[in-house]
Amino acid sequence: MKLSQFKYNLPIELIAKHPVEHRDESRLMVLNRATGKIEHRMFKEIIEYFDEGDVMVFNNTKVFPARLYGNKEKTGAEIEVFLLRELNREQRLWDVLVDPARKIRIGNKLYFGEDDLLVAEVIDNTTSRGRTLRFLFDGDYEEFKATLYKLGETPLPKFIRRNVVPEDRERYQTIYAKHEGAVAAPTAGLHFSRELLKRLEIKGVNNAEITLHVGLGNFRTVDVEDLTKHKMDSEQINISDEAVSLVNKAKESRKHVCAVGTTVLRTLETSVTTDGYLKPYDGWTNKFIFPPYEVLVANRMISNFHLSQSTLLMMVCAFGGFDRVMAAYGEAVKEKYRFGTYGDAMLIL
């Protein structure tokens, strides 16, 4: 399949700038893959589609405040630094993106916060935009991390065209987030409230948790028409024995296994046996899923409505069928569903 096939017209006003007041009260489109039938529901009604013994697989990664604003030494030019991952805890080394990149050279110092609370030195140029920074900080590691997070901002995607507000720190995070390391939220999980999770538990629906630390690669534009030539950024994942046991037991019992989001789908498909069962895994994945691709582990999926020509849309099309999903997206635009990170959700049966 070609990149141009995943283009659709999305009016900019349909990209959600804010979350709905209550997590589980966004709209839910339900798409039946077999028939193409579409239903329009509320997200909290998703419980009606699951029964005792079914498994929902959640990504329990936790977003950290990864966006910093600082100034370059001497010129005072404002620089945006996006923390990608910690490279070395003792030496305070971080892999980052800088913007504007052209102004930053090896040896430059960057200053953050009032009274230059934090100082960093550029020690490596890894890509055109990427850099390695060494933070110069006298205190212990906990003090350093606290300072970094105090200065950091919730890393909302750039397509949400507004300033970050205090509520974003809570709302751009799933309520079950545990393991810190993501620079973007696994957005399908943002719709789950504590009340909804409790109701699912009472009904006998099991929760399995995996971890994929979501990276900025999710938002990287695909710039090749031939999708086989696109390379995904690597992301760290973990699939525990407990998650494997829950998923495989459900599959053996012919129960439903639902991937809550594209990050879960990609993680599950990274470590699967030839007969569709899950294996434990701790490592990295750069798996790129696009049609035609046969998904082996999950037989249901929850996802937000993704932007045109994104790798996330391609993954949803691989699961739900290209024609069915693109038709559903056309219906979503017509019905004025909300798109993107803070938007509405889709359940594919």
UniProtKB/TrEMBL annotation:
**Could you tell me where this protein is found in the cell?**
Cytoplasm
Please name the SUPFAM superfamilies in this protein's record: QueA-like
Q: Which family does it belong to?
A: Belongs to the QueA family.
Which EC numbers characterise this protein's activity in its record?
Answer: 2.4.99.17
Q: Which InterPro entries match?
A: QueA, QueA_dom1, QueA_dom2, QueA_sf
Its UniProt entry gives the catalysed reaction(s) as:
7-aminomethyl-7-carbaguanosine(34) in tRNA + S-adenosyl-L-methionine = epoxyqueuosine(34) in tRNA + adenine + L-methionine + 2 H(+)
Its GO biological process annotations read: tRNA queuosine(34) biosynthetic process
The gene coding this protein:
queA
According to the record, the signal peptide region is none
Pathway(s) annotated for this protein in UniProt: tRNA modification; tRNA-queuosine biosynthesis
Q: What is this protein called?
A: S-adenosylmethionine:tRNA ribosyltransferase-isomerase
Looking up NCBIfam families in the UniProt record yields: PRK00147.1 (NF001140), queA (TIGR00113)
Give the source's domain of life in one word.
Bacteria
The kind of enzyme this is, by top-level EC class, is: transferase
Q: Tell me, what does this protein do in biology? A: Transfers and isomerizes the ribose moiety from AdoMet to the 7-aminomethyl group of 7-deazaguanine (preQ1-tRNA) to give epoxyqueuosine (oQ-tRNA).
Read off the lineage from the record: Bacteria, Pseudomonadati, Bacteroidota, Bacteroidia, Bacteroidales
Q: Report keywords, A-Z.
A: Cytoplasm, Isomerase, Queuosine biosynthesis, S-adenosyl-L-methionine, Transferase
> Can you quote a single GO CC term?
cytoplasm
Transmembrane portions of the chain: none
One Pfam short name:
Queuosine_synth
Quaternary assembly: Monomer.
Q: Name one GO molecular function term.
A: S-adenosylmethionine:tRNA ribosyltransferase-isomerase activity
